[in-house]
Specification:
Strand content: under 5%
Number of helices: 10
Radius of gyration: 33 Å
Distance between the termini: 50 Å
Structural class: mainly alpha
Order of helices and strands: HHHHHHHHHH
Shape: elongated
């Protein structure tokens, strides 16, 4: 280890002229500033890289939620179509072509669950990265998309809970003869279903449960958010 001769250092500094002292001091200050700015740039670059990585995870998460949403809504729409068909004919089965009724033979036994994935969104919210995104309107729109999906989860869960409360006790009360008739489908099956007051009343529900443009509006909101993320952070 080299021993510093402080006496020599003091002598050297004492012999500096004013201009040379200022020049040497400036070099030190500039060196510190360069180090500070460089460190700040590296930190900022790392943060932006982390933000981009997280936002692309959110993009993928939204796509997954969108696929699940479309799948669940597709199943629900079968309930809605048979409900609409029955209501349009005032529950008078024989006025409906039997082939049309057979298309929905097993609809009342179908149940679905929607689980909104939000791990990537929670990662962003629980980190310091969210504070580094300056566009608050963009963040607000992102939060609103997830709130819309959570709202759908609540609504569809309530719908299938209601369906279960109406249909499950009915299925458990069937005689063997009625059960075999249900398997045959057509008029006989639906006459057995609608003979039950609770099931009959429930069949009025799906037609008006979601407004006609609900599915399209949710899909458009998700699509818009996915495009906004890709415009800001790229696709990969």
């Amino acid at each position: 280890m080299v021993k510093i001769d402080w006496k020599k250092v003091k002598t050297t500094i004492r012999n500096w002229k004013p201009g040379e002292y200022i020049r040497q001091t400036s070099i030190v200050v500039i060196g510190v500033l360069i180090t500070f700015v460089g460190s700040e740039l590296v930190t900022r670059c790392s943060e932006q890289k982390d933000i981009k990585s997280t936002m692309l995870l959110i993009r993928d998460e939204l796509k997954s939620n969108q696929d699940q949403f479309e799948d669940v809504m597709s199943e629900f729409n079968k309930d809605k179509r048979i409900s609409t068909l029955l209501m349009e004919h005032d529950m008078k089965l024989r006025m409906i072509p039997e082939d049309s009724l057979r298309q929905f033979g097993f609809v009342l036994g179908h149940f679905r669950v929607f689980s909104c994935r939000r791990n990537a969104m929670d990662l962003l919210k629980n980190s310091m990265l969210m504070q580094k995104i300056s566009d608050k309107e963009f963040l607000l729109s992102l939060i609103e998309v997830y709130e819309r999906l959570e709202s759908f989860r609540t609504l569809i869960t309530e719908y299938y809970d209601m369906k279960g409360q109406a249909v499950n006790p009915f299925h458990l009360s069937l005689t063997d003869e009625q059960f075999n008739s249900l398997l045959e489908g057509g008029y006989e099956m639906w006459e057995i279903y609608l003979s039950d007051k609770t099931v009959r009343n429930f069949m009025r529900t799906p037609m008006e449960y979601f407004h006609s443009s609900y599915k399209k509006s949710v899909e458009q909101e998700i699509d818009k958010m996915i495009r906004a993320i890709e415009q800001r952070y790229g696709t990969k």
